[in-house]
Design goal:
The protein is an alpha+beta fold. The chain contains 15 helices and 18 strands. The strands form six sheets. It has a seven-stranded mixed beta sheet with strand order 1-2-5-6-14-11-7. Strands 8-18-15 form a three-stranded antiparallel beta sheet. Strands 3-4 form a two-stranded antiparallel sheet. Strand 9 and strand 10 form a beta hairpin. Helix 5 packs antiparallel against helix 9 and helix 9 runs parallel beside helix 15. The radius of gyration is 23 Å and the shape is globular. Bound molecules: protoporphyrin IX containing FE. Protoporphyrin IX containing FE binds next to helix 9 and helix 15.
Length: about 500
């Protein structure tokens, strides 16, 4: 394993066919349908699981690949990517979601379009304001605290004074715990049940993502569809049971968790004949879909950011030590506060570099709603457009010759100055549809990392196998076993 060697697909010259679809000279075609194994750059084992990965075009520029029955144009130049993501022309919509993804997220903020998106974003925005997030930091820290105590206990009972922990699964549980508490406050236990059911749906999504979607198939009572409908109904019933009592407590406040803040922003006063009447700007179904979105978008991605940060800090002990010094300098052994976390400059640099090399969301998908020209490309209406984030994040022309190396110092002067193109970091996307939860995610990652760093030093377990796999988000296929050693020992 070369340290930090990122997972990218190597060019396979023999498989490229010129000239299908767009302009001949610029468009490469690759048949990305078969999942395949490959060596990573450093010779470590790198398994590409379950889903095809686009192949890197030797000359750069756009290329074409197939995902299921549909061709997709993969954009590799930043100018086209900016045009699509800023969408000033209003031509680019999100691609129709796979039915199981739709069941996972519902028609929440991630998937809605047009005036519906404006309405949803207006309601959800206030919940993610920095002053609200600051009060949630205490919750984030207190969710991590019992784990730290447990590891200390386990390490002290081991002769080696060390403890091995599998962090990939652990971070999933921890971020689910955090989103249950920050999202649903006192109803967090019911929230966690929603989370468990959503995980079952996610497993179904991963297993069926490559299935060809025949027209009408989603309505047939196949085994998978019946399971999906049952899980979907269960999630809806559980969320209604959380939301309805809140609405009924009208006047008593709706709570200072994400759900409460959203309900607050959702209520408008309508001037009716009988005086003021409170109505909701989102329907009950839409509120339910926003809750599903918080859950899925809010924990899966952040757990991946934490996982890969632990991985990189294990591989780069000098950076682990730098961050530990920063945490102890600012806060000593006390628990971190939001104001302190915002001062952690080196921690921010490491998290951004982790997002660049191991971006949790691998691809953003769009489709033009009418025929459109994008630079030298003519893209027919309805064709898929893919923005392959890992490829763009390793473009040497943009990130410099060390694009494949772990170098947090590139973010020393902020995101804008980290690359030759401003806004080159796409992990949270850019433009109006960029991630609404990015400050939440960064605060959460900093809280958890600060809690770990001030108590333990850590190294990769000898059982670790480097196999980043695209399971909707990027994760280590065989988990992330890490050996923790309490600092006081
Ligand atoms: C490291 C953590 C995270 C990463 C890498 C991430 C990444 C992204 C990306 C790439 C998008 C744009 C997707 C697209 O346009 O196709 C997005 C959108 C979104 N994210 Fe995140 N996200 C993270 C954390 C969160 C959290 C914590 C929440 C909520 C609690 C959240 C909620 C959302 C929502 C609601 C959208 C849709 C925004 C819109 O379309 O207006 N995300 N995220």
């Amino acid at each position: 394993l070369r340290r930090g060697a990122p997972p990218v697909a190597a060019p396979r010259r023999g498989r490229h066919v010129q000239g299908a679809g767009g302009p001949r000279a610029a468009l490469q075609v690759s048949q990305g349908q078969q999942p395949r194994r490959q060596e990573d750059e450093g010779g470590g084992r790198c398994a590409s699981a379950g889903r095809p990965r686009p192949q890197l075009s030797p000359q750069g520029g756009p290329f074409l690949y197939w995902f299921g029955p549909q061709p997709r144009i993969c954009l590799l130049d930043y100018e086209s990517v900016r045009q699509v993501l800023f969408n000033k022309s209003g031509h680019f919509f999100k691609i129709d979601a796979h039915p199981t993804i739709l069941a996972l997220l519902g028609k929440g903020l991630v998937l809605v379009e047009g005036t519906d998106w404006v309405r949803h974003r207006r309601v959800v925005n206030p919940a993610f304001a920095m002053d609200k997030l600051k009060t949630m930091t205490t919750t984030m820290v207190s969710c991590a605290e019992p784990l730290i105590k447990e590891w200390e206990r386990l390490a002290s009972s081991n002769e080696s004074r060390e403890v091995e922990v599998e962090f990939s699964k652990l971070f999933q549980d921890l971020t689910a715990d955090i989103i249950s508490h920050t999202g649903f406050g006192s109803s967090y236990k019911q929230g966690k049940e929603v989370f468990h059911t959503q995980r079952q749906l996610l497993a179904l999504a991963v297993a069926t993502l490559l299935n060809v979607q025949l027209p009408g198939l989603k309505y047939l009572p196949t085994k998978n569809n019946r399971l999906k409908w049952m899980l979907d109904k269960k999630i809806k019933t559980m969320l209604m049971a959380i939301i309805q009592p809140r609405l009924a407590s009208n006047g008593g406040g709706y709570g200072d968790d994400l759900l409460g803040l959203m309900l607050e922003a959702c209520l408008t006063t309508e001037q009716g004949e009988k005086g003021d009447e409170l109505t909701l700007t989102l329907t009950m179904d839409e509120i339910i879909d926003e809750c599903k979105t918080f859950f899925f978008a809010g924990h899966e991605t952040t757990s991946r950011l934490l996982t890969w940060t632990m991985f990189l800090l294990s591989v780069y002990p000098e950076w682990q030590e730098r961050l530990r010094e920063e945490v102890l300098r600012e806060r000593g052994k006390e628990n971190p506060t939001a104001d302190m976390l915002n001062k952690f400059k080196e921690m921010t640099m490491v998290l951004l570099e982790t997002l660049r090399l191991y971006t949790p969301v691998m691809v953003m998908l769009r489709k033009p709603i009418s025929d459109i020209r994008l630079g030298s490309l003519s893209i027919p209406k309805g064709n898929g457009i893919a923005i392959p984030i890992p490829f763009l994040h390793r473009d040497k022309e943009v990130w410099g010759d060390n694009a494949n190396d772990f170098d947090p110092l590139r973010f020393e002067n902020g995101i804008t100055n980290a690359a030759k193109t401003p806004q080159a970091l796409l992990s949270f996307s850019i433009g109006p549809r960029s991630c609404i939860g990015q400050n939440f995610a960064m605060l959460e990652a900093k809280s958890v990392m600060a809690m770990i760093l001030k108590k333990f030093s850590f190294t990769l377990s000898s059982s670790y196998v480097h196999a980043p796999a695209d399971h909707i988000t990027l994760q280590p296929k065989f988990g992330l076993p890490i050996v923790l050693r309490p600092l006081d020992v």
